[in-house]
Design a protein that fits this description.
A hairpin with a 2-residue loop joins β13 (about 155-165) and β14. The longest helix is centred in the last third of the chain and has 19 residues, at about 240-260. This protein has about 270 residues and is mainly beta. The chain has helices spanning about 205-215, 240-260, and strands spanning about 5-15, 20-30, 30-35, 45-50, 60-65, 70-75, 80-85, 90-100, 105-110, 110-115, 120-130, 135-140, 155-165, 165-175, 195-200, 220-230, 230-240. Strands 3, 4, 6, 7, 9, 10, 12, 15, 16 and 17 form a 10-stranded mixed β-sheet that branches. A 7-stranded mixed β-sheet has the order 2-1-5-8-11-13-14, with no helix packed on it. It is globular, with a radius of gyration of 18 Å.
Length: about 270
């Protein structure tokens, strides 16, 4: 039996009147969206909202996004998500992103801050049809050092899978807890507390070159690198703050967007507020 909120939302993008719009929405619990709008980049922008502002132990958030053929959609959030300290129950966040042939989807949420003492499980499944286009990231910060929260307790597990035309191209597992060598060793986070990964497909050497060029302008407080494998670009970044990591990934995204998505760089307006 669940001891927290159970929230679900399913979003379907379709073509109506010659442009992409939200044609179907189903929700239950505290997840909502603002009305979609079109800022001029040819893409439908949508803000995903979680009115409670944070996730507590036992909460479950399930998001399903489907971009039908011929659509171009971008989904982001208005603020960082927060996962609060728990007395025992884990919180769960699941994202399923489905992109049909001839469609594009950009999944660009702001960072998730994991409070010390929190327990969180994050599953992200990306399913791309042949000929689909995708760019998406996830950014996490362990603790809140400015508030004296150094993440000395807690647990975090992340699973990310990306399929193209039914073939598994990416399978990433992360499992962090205080005392884990991966938090302090140079092959891991090297004592930094924020990390994130941007995936983009389809990708080739030109996309990789664009991403690496953009990463040359990231601040010194962030370490980042990019690679391409099986037609998927992966950009990884670590830093001291989630906002710094997200800024680095946003630079890479801006550089590769014309090649991968077919749209010029245009940051969502909400990022500037």
């Amino acid at each position: 039996m669940s001891v927290g909120w159970e929230a679900k939302i399913a979003l379907v993008f379709g073509v109506c009147g010659g442009r992409t719009t939200l044609v179907r929405r189903y929700g239950r619990g505290p997840l909502a969206v603002q009305r979609p709008f079109h800022p001029g980049d040819g893409v439908c922008h949508l803000y995903l909202l979680h009115p409670p502002g944070g996730v507590a132990g036992g909460d479950s958030l399930d998001v399903h996004v489907h971009a039908r053929g011929g659509t171009a959609a971008l989904v982001t959030t208005p603020a960082a998500a927060k996962v609060y300290r728990t007395l025992g129950a884990s919180s769960r966040m699941r994202q399923t992103l489905v992109v049909d042939e001839g469609a594009s989807l950009e999944w660009l949420p702001q960072e998730t801050i994991l409070f010390g003492g929190s327990a969180c499980r994050v599953h992200t499944d990306v399913q791309l049809a042949k000929g689909a286009r995708f760019a998406g990231w996830e950014v996490f910060a362990l603790g809140r050092e400015h508030f004296g929260d150094h993440y000395t307790q807690g647990s975090f597990r992340q699973r990310t899978q990306l399929h193209i035309d039914g073939t598994l191209c990416v399978r990433e597992l992360q499992d962090f807890a205080p005392g884990d060598p991966a938090l302090v060793e140079r092959w891991g986070l090297a004592s930094r507390r924020a990390f994130g990964t941007l995936y983009a497909a389809p990708a080739d050497e030109d996309v990789l070159a664009r991403a690496r060029h953009a990463l040359g302008e990231v601040p010194d407080c962030v370490d980042a690198g990019a690679t391409v494998l099986d037609g998927v670009l992966a950009v990884r970044a670590v830093g001291s703050a989630g906002s710094d990591v997200r800024t680095a990934l946003a630079r890479a995204w801006s550089g590769l967007r014309p090649l991968v998505i077919g749209a010029q760089p245009m940051h969502p307006r909400i990022w500037a507020t």
